[in-house]
Amino acid sequence: xxxxxxxxxxxxxxxxxxxxxxxxxxxxxxxxxxxxxxxxxxxxxxxxxxxxxxxxxxxxxxxxxxxxxxxxxxxxxxxxxxxxxxxxxxxxxxxxxxxxxxxxxxxxxxxxxxxxxxxxxxxxxxxxxxxxxxxxxxxxxxxxxxxxxxxxxxxxxxxxxxxxxxxxxxxxxxxxxxxxxxxxxxxxxxxxxxxxxxxxxxxxxxxxxxxxxxxxxxxxxxxxxxxxxxxxxxxxxxxxxxxxxxxxxxxxxxxxxxxxxxxxxxxxxxxxxxxxxxxxxxxxxxxxxxxxxxxxxxxxxxxxxxxxxxxxxxxxxxxxxxxxxxxxxxxxxxxxxxxxxxxxxxxxxxxxxxxxxxxxxxxxxxxxxxxxxx
Length: 374
Hints:
The protein has helices at 18-32, 68-81, 125-134, 147-153, 192-203, 218-223, 225-248, 265-274, 277-291, 307-317, 327-343, 363-373; strands at 5-13, 36-39, 43-45, 55-64, 98-104, 109-110, 115-116, 160-162, 181-186, 206-208, 258-260, 299-304, 349-353. By secondary structure, the chain is α/β, with parallel strands linked by helices. It has 2 domains: 5-172, Alpha-Beta Plaits, CATH 3.30.70.560; 174-373, Rossmann fold (3-Layer(aba) Sandwich). The longest helix has 24 residues, at 225-248. The protein is elongated and about 80 Å long. The mean pLDDT is 91.
């Protein structure tokens, strides 16, 4: 996945039921691309550059890991679904729906297919007014002026009216606010990190990802498990303990939710598989002495995945040190998780079968998971 980016977009319509057209666009963006973080009220403006009915316009924002070109192609598909036929002639006409990318963080793109920031946004009150409403502190990445400064310097006499019409945000129909801290768990290759990133992006939460890549013993363990198992598990425990303490220390002071792609119990589960009996008994004593001071998740989501799918996902990741992970080892991990959760009825665990869905590529699959959580 790419780095998460914040998108600001504009949506306009001047044909037919303009409110319905914009609302359906919002609903399709939610079901196909991302949950909207904010939606402005509707602004009515006259047509510019051609004779036509007045437009209803809004601005909205969302987070996404997808590229601007991917997002733009999705917008074009949404426009087609709603009945827009784009003319090859480069002239302004009435349209049932028009979706533009205005800004993507501080990115600057100049290509034949896409220009970001949108080249006309600084000249349009029907963009600047609703944009200020939802995000007044934006700085234009090219001219380095705030959106407010740009609006104040605009000489356009264009008439604009805030209609005080509030559109429905489908993202508000689902919520994870019942849980301050959610941990995503599962076997190797089950999609823990992918799901954590998607939820964090959609709900604008703090994201805590396991820092396994920097572990100096991980690759050595897969080559020689007996020699490096205890060193690996001890280093993981130390790192997870430090990370959870640092990242969760402010949990009670801020309202922002936290999503993590692991739970600290992972250390206990894997160590039982990888260590001999004496090593595990020592490890378990240390684990529970540290565990007392760690903030516990309000909800643990466990992703059930088939061994076959796990192996496919592991292969896709292309990590050389994971290439020798056996089917037997993956089965042991599944059994260890199952045994552990059966022994801990005090933990709030929700099991989700993801064996026949693809929540990374299919947003409807992802939304089915979110609906099951909220």
